[in-house]
Amino acid sequence: MSPSESEAAFLARYDPADYARPAVAVDLVLMGLSAGRPALLLLRRDRHPHAGRHALPGGFVGIDEALEDAAARVLREKAGGVPAHLEQLYTFGAVERDPRMRIVTVAYLALLAEAAFAEALERAPTLSFGTVALPRRGVADEAEAAAPVTVLSPTGEALRLAFDHAEIVALAMRRLRGKLDYSEVGFRLLPELFTLRQLQDVHEAILGTPLNKPAFRRRMLDRGWLEPTGRFETGTSYRPAELYRFRPTSPSQGD
Amino acid sequence: MSPSESEAAFLARYDPADYARPAVAVDLVLMGLSAGRPALLLLRRDRHPHAGRHALPGGFVGIDEALEDAAARVLREKAGGVPAHLEQLYTFGAVERDPRMRIVTVAYLALLAEAAFAEALERAPTLSFGTVALPRRGVADEAEAAAPVTVLSPTGEALRLAFDHAEIVALAMRRLRGKLDYSEVGFRLLPELFTLRQLQDVHEAILGTPLNKPAFRRRMLDRGWLEPTGRFETGTSYRPAELYRFRPTSPSQGD
DNA sequence: GTAATAGTGTCTCTTAGACAGTATACC
DNA sequence: GGTATACTGTCTAAGAGACACTATTAC
């Protein structure tokens, strides 16, 4: 190995069992929509540290468990067996991010359709949720500096999040905004059949900005992602809109 | 805590020291340009596993060391004290990715200017390098499925990379391509003063596709990133081009 | 002068925003 | 009929590709 490599690193490479290791965890930003606003599932902490604050659901990664599997396990535990989009966000590894011990956490973003989100809240009585208040900034560039987000309780007060979880939520919003227009994530927040207006509402909720209707329709239809079903919504007091289905184009496994 | 949380996870949350932990490492894709092609620094492994294959430089994360600090340490060890762009890529945590033991590795992308890249190769005799052969695909979309990349030795043979490092390199190329047009990474591969043609050469090398000259110039100048110096290149047998300097616009800390 | 590349002016094409118009439901 | 929303046609503005043109150096 390289002579420029430090002695400690050299030894650690071959027998790191002798060295203290950070714990490895996953934390999930479980996002959905609640009353047309971006929302996320939170657990209220009842003990030290950060007792009383809200935290993202998470768990330690088992020694024989892949990162994705750990994230999927936490997702199952909190949201049931619902199919959902799950994507790795970023890994947070500041030394003092948890005062109890050194924990490196891999943050994941999970997206739940509106119905699944509401159902998860009902099933698990300890889950609460917060809506994300958006700085009105138009179509955000994912490369911009992290804009701080404010998480509001259902009654409208600002929630203080535990640990570095506010930073994780801000990154999740930023990633979601960045991918919204060119990826399929927008459809993950909708039921199987939806109208173009519903799709536009989702985009506007995530971006925090109104969008031009004809341009939005053209863009979405030109993407080739939308399959018209010939069926129409019912129960409206006005002209009913056609229902569409999401049809993935390429086999694309995404990020 | 939630009753839906498994007993094991509950216990692990409070005393994970009793459980076996994965080791946490960082691996670096140290990219630069060599003769106008994207290139990366590699170490040839001389022992099991994957002896004879090439691997990314890396190291274990100390118990009191932030992830970024570990990445910066490995960067220093391999490339000296050169200032460079350093950005987290993704975290790889498949159970069997290293046959010796469970290692979760946080991959980082580091960019070195062409001179610093060459200097690093000279300083460390055990370092070798490979150039990345690009599938000609035009401006890549970072959300696309990972396109496999081929890493070639200086003599042109395809190198087999150890572990999942080929996947990491593919992701690095994809990320670099995705950010190239709207971020400042392109300038990190250039010396302090450079001509517009050099900048375009860098973009073309990364994207693997020729670009339109007037459009490229307009775009770059309109970004407000380029500061003309009034100085010109020397030693050409044709009209010398003006030298520009990169001027960051916002304080932007980026990703 | 020639050769080679730097740098610019302009046309066209594509795409998005703006906005007005028509269509179809319920009352 | 009125009203509310779905859906469309068309104008305009911005940006990129194409390509020809001028400018400046070495020889």
TrEMBL record, chains A, B:
This is 8-oxo-dGTP diphosphatase. Residues 24-111 form the Nudix hydrolase domain. Keywords: Hydrolase. Residues 186-246 form the NrtR DNA-binding winged helix domain. It is an enzyme of class 3 (hydrolase). The keyword Hydrolase applies. InterPro entries: NUDIX_hydrolase-like_dom_sf, NUDIX_hydrolase_dom, WH-like_DNA-bd_sf, WH_DNA-bd_sf, WHD_NrtR. One of its GO terms (molecular function) is 8-oxo-7,8-dihydrodeoxyguanosine triphosphate pyrophosphatase activity. The keyword Phosphoprotein does not apply. It comes from the Bacteria. Its EC number is 3.6.1.55.
